[in-house]
Every structure is written in C-alpha cells, then in structure tokens.
Amino acid sequence: MSNFTPNRRHVLAGIGATLAMPALISRSKAAELTLRLHHFLPAVSPMHKAFFEPWAKELSEASNGAIEVQIFPAMQLGGKPPQLADQAKTGIADIVWALPTYTPGRFLVAETMGLPFLNTTAEKTSVAVHKLMDEFGGNEFEGTKPLAFWSHAGGKMHMRDEPVRTAADLAGKKIRSPNAGMGELLVALGSDPVFFPVTDMVLGLSSGVIDGCCLPYEVVPAFKLQELTKFSSEAAPGARGLYANTNVLLMNQERYEGLSDDLRGVIDANSGIELSRRIGKTFDEFEEVGREVVKKQGNEIVEIPAEEIAKLAEAAKPVYANWEAKLNEAGHDGAAILARANALLDQGA
Fold first, then answer.
1. Do 220 and 316 fall within a single domain?
2. Which residue, 236, 211, 237, 215, is CA-closest to 224?
3. Taking the CA atoms of the chain, what radius of gyration do you get in angstroms?
4. pTM of the predicted protein model
5. pLDDT on residue 132
6. Which CDD domains match (predicted)?
7. How many other C-beta atoms can be found within 10 angstroms of the C-beta atom of residue 25?
8. 69, 95 in Cβ contact below 8 A?
C-alpha cells in the first residue's frame, strides 16, 4: 500500500536486530520442514509485510534453508478467524495468529489484558501479557505451543458521523466492540455494542449497521476505514489506552515436539518473550503509520480529555469485578491476576 511503503524501511530496521539468532545449522540443505502459517488479515497489512514475511525469512536463514514457512493470509486455508486457535490444535495449520477474544470465555487469562485501560504502549503491554501468561496461563492453550503473546497499541473510537469527545457522547450509539469487557463498558455508558471480527468491519460501517468502531489506528489502512469514518477519538497523552486485545502466535504441539533438536532450537531462539517484545514494538510503529493515514484523509482526530477518561475508568469498575468473578469460577485467582496485570503495566513490564 502506498501509505505504508514510505515507513516500511524504518519498521523493518527497527525489528531486524531485536531478536537474537542461533548459530546457523552447519549442514547445507534444501527445505526439509514446511510450516503453514495462517492468519486473518490481507497480504497488504503491516503485520503480514513487516513481520510475518521477515520472520519466515529469518527462520529459513537460521536453519540454513531447512525451514520454509508458507504464509496464508486472509483465511486462505478456510474457516473463520475465531477458528484459528483450533486450526493450530488440530493441525489444519502449523502456526496461526489468533485472537483469544474471538472465542469469549475460552482463554480467560489471555483475555484479561483486553479489559478497559489495561494497556500502555504495545511493546510494554506485550511483555506484560507474556509474563502474565507465563505466571498464570497454565494449560490455557493446551495442544498448541505458544510462540509469542502481544498487544496492539491502545484502541481508539472511529466514528462515521459524530465524534466522541465525552463519555456522554457514547449514549445511543451502535459501536463495534472489540471484546466482552469493552462491550460491558459500552453498555454501562448507554451504547449498543455490536461484536464481529475486524474482517467484517467494512460492511458494518458502509451499511450503517454501526455508528463507529473500537480499533487501533494500525488496522485502518488495510481496510480503508479512513474512508468510512470521519472522526477518531483517542485518550489524552499519559493516560492508559481505552483497550488492547491480546494476540497469540500458536504452533501445533505435536508438530513442534516432532522436530529434530536443531530445528526445534531454531524455533525456540526465534520465539518467546523477546519475540513478544519485538512484535509489540512493531505495532507501536504500525500505529503511527495508521494515524498518519487518518490525518492525510482529513479526518478529525479528537483527544478525550483526562477528566472524561476518569469517568470512563470509573464506569469500568464493575467490568473488573465481573471479570474477577469469571476468573474465580474457572478456578483461577481473579484478584491476583488483575493485580499482577496492573503491577506489570505500572512497572513498565
């Protein structure tokens, strides 16, 4: 995409040296392992071009050509985005990019960081998510091997006809909610939340089914949402973002365990918390790119003042209480998980 190209070199330079690489496998070989990577965004999306393609190349180079990653964007292997985690578990794909929020209530610990105001920068929040999952996630993704957890930058509200400047402006609006927690908050503020995957966003906005949507800027260019909305509202500087969904890169467990030691070593060296940090950092870069696209379109960017953010945060307190109860019912220590999530964010992870 023309809007992304001028920044792509900068993004790639930022991520290229971040992850430590293992020594190259000494023997020269043609690809002996082909991994199919499946995700839901189009091939023009920043994540596809600036992360998945370089990462696939790095795995190939680190294995001296033994690992080949074939990338299938836009659900080309079939199914819907909510089915991606199961596709990794059953082996339909070897690796998937999945959003726990697309299957509400199934991955409760991972979903926790999608609650309102549980995010700072994408990089810091991604590290916090990874640590939280290491400490409390247990077997939440049983049957798969999580390679990374990450978060996008704090979500914004993109509106068709009227901006959101205050909490009161949300009353009566139909807004695409990104997850259950934000949906509860929107209800408390008098909105009518609608939930569907980001891939259905264009139809929802163009048909008038929704008045607006909660999304980070980075998603905007891939779907040309800047042409379907006129206003984007963001939290005042220094405040936590409105929300941020947890993302996860999952590998089929049997596929991972069946690798030779050297190939498994390549995967291990190119996954884990440093990969989470790296992806989060790229999402911070993507956010700036998307924001510039919105500005170039001539849309108005609205800053929600601190006193209005405080009203939203106050309205979110029952959302946290309800989520703590859900975690407890599932056998977790809800209070400990929420306290740890906030502590990690306050510490900068």
1. yes
2. 215
3. 20
4. 0.89
5. 98
6. PBP2_TRAP_Dctp3_4 (cd13665)
7. 18
8. yes
